[in-house]
Structure formats: structure tokens, C-alpha cells
């Protein structure tokens, strides 16, 4: 086989990495090169992720290799897949990262890999890339390492010494789905790695409180990803699984990636991908659990037969099913009840709570805090507004659903 150039390798291994959704750079500590070293986690900058304050951060997102000894049905890089293969050396990844940074193309690295030789060998190679960047080149930019759960636990934990964030993919929402589509992977090994990483992160945080010079360890925590639509798991199953991961392993994020049909696909996979709106509704449900006080059973209650409606968001779906809890008085209700009102976000609720200490809120006041007061009106009471029979209207869902429209092929 002809020797591949670095550019050809980059073309293959950057494209192979596009299926991994868990490459956000939010949550890390602030570092820059003004006190020595190379790189920064700050400022504006190849993959684009977004920090909590809205800054766009560019990451070099690649695989170390797309060769793999595993044969997971849903993976385009599986052993039996007929794809072009390539492999970087450790030094090639280091040089690419530094070269792209110096040209101001990127601000960090997202590095994953197929399994080559053995899980331990692959994990050693991933850690060595991060170690060289940090210790030999003083790189202070963002690093996200995708760990290999089948590797030795000590090797997996070493990733946190050099990476800002580590991720260990749970892959499928259910154990049955994982056994069927990735028989070489084990839920116990995956969750065991998650538990070990959580323990290491907690220990490092405790040490940093006691010792000023304690080494930093995975400051942006750990994340994971689930593939959606490759098996029969319902939205209720998926959200219940995600809530368990947040609670048990201290996940910073759970990512949802809609299954995409791949070349020469296995016969056990569906023929088409799920609607992208389903992925969006799962992210909205995830947000409700993390920031709005919803529980997994609330999401299940909002779903029909375990599946969330695609035409309306899960918060509105829940409110329509439990109309007896509405309307909510914006001048009297506690925070938890206000957060259940469709159309009111966390910031809007915070503003309502602070403003009503000084004066009584009217409907116009609430309108300034939401993108669509029409969505809010059926569910609230204000000083000059009471919905009367609006909340109980049989056609309320139709009234609040976005209107269907025909897309134009050649729209301006």
C-alpha cells in the first residue's frame, strides 16, 4: 500500500471523527500563554464548539487512527467496514496541533481513536499525545481525550492529568442494545471506567482545597455520548439513562447523536436515520432535568408511548398534559412552579422573582422576558391578565404549535 502523506491522513481521520458529537469545550479552567508556554483556552480562534458565554472555540477534531479491532455494527470505522484507513503517529498529532494553533486555526484538540493492537496500547498513545503537548511544548490550549474503557484503569486515569475533559462513551441507551450492536463492549467496563474517573476528579478537587500546588485534573470533568435511533430504546429510556449517568458519575454533559446510515451497513441496523428533531427534543429534555427541576418520570409523562412529540417541545407537552397545575400566578408562585411555565426560561424566572419584590408584574412585564408571550399567556396569571377558559381549550395544542410551512427549493 502506498505511503500516505500527512495531508491525506488528515483528510481521512478528520472525516472519520465527525460522528462523535461530544466535543464541547465548555467548563474548563482559564489558561493563557502570557505567563509562558503555548496556547490558550480563551479568546476567539476543525470543529466549532461553544463555551457557556457564547464564545466560539475551534478544535482540531481527529482520530489517532480509524483502524479498529472491534466490529460495532453502528460504527463506520468497525473492523469489517470497507473504508479507507489511516493512522497518525504521536509526533504527527503533536506537530499538527501546534502548527494549526500557530496559524490561529484552532484553540484546542479533540482526540479519539479506533482500537489498535490492544485497548492498553491505544490508551497509551492517546495519553502520550497529551503529555507531549503539555510537558514538552508547554501547550496550554484545550485538550479533550476520548478514553478507551477496556484499557487499564490507571491508564484511563492518566488522561485526566493532561486533558481538560475526558469522555467515555456509553454508546447505547440500554444494555440489551449494546449487547446486540456492540457485543465486544461491556456496560460494566464502561461504567467502571466512569466511576474510576469520577473518583479521581473528586480526589483531585479535594486535594486542590488543601494544597495550593495540587496538580489540576480534568477541570472540565467527563462527558459521554449515546447513539439515538439505532435500537428500539424510547425517548423515555434514553432520558432515564442520562439522568442516571448525571447522578451516579457526575457527568458534565450527556450528548445525543442521531444514528446516521453508513456504507455497507449491517443488516441489523435501521435503513434510515431518525428525525433530527428527535435529537433536538432529547437535548431540550436533558436541559429540563439539569436546570428546570424536572425528573425523568416527568419526561416520560410528557411522551406518548415513550416517544416525545416532535411538533412541540417537551416542556409544553408536559404542561398540556397537566393543565390542572396551571395557571401560575407570576406575582405569588415559587420558583419551582414558574420554571414549569412554557416559554419562561431560567433567566426570565430569576428576573420575575427579583422584580416582584418591588412592584406587581403585569402581562407586558412578562412579555419583555420571553420570545413569545402567546405561548406564556394560557399558563399564567398577572395583575392585569387571567386566562379564564384559555388554559382548558381543546385546541390549545394546535394554537401553540408552530405552523407547518412548505419549504422552497430555490428560496432566496
From TrEMBL:
Q: Does the keyword section mention Disulfide bond? A: no
What sequence ranges are listed for the domain Elp3/MiaA/NifB-like radical SAM core? Answer: 58-285
Q: Which Gene3D superfamilies match?
A: Aldolase class I
Named cofactor requirement(s): [4Fe-4S] cluster
The molecular function terms in GO held by this entry are:
catalytic activity; iron-sulfur cluster binding; metal ion binding
Instruction: Tell me the InterPro entries matching this sequence.
Output: Aldolase_TIM, DNA_rSAM_put, Elp3/MiaA/NifB-like_rSAM, Endo/Exo/Phosphatase_dom_1, rSAM, rSAM_sf, RuvA_2-like
User: Domain of life of the organism in this record?
Assistant: Bacteria
NCBIfam families per record: rSAM_link_UDG (TIGR03916)
Descriptive protein name: Putative DNA modification/repair radical SAM protein
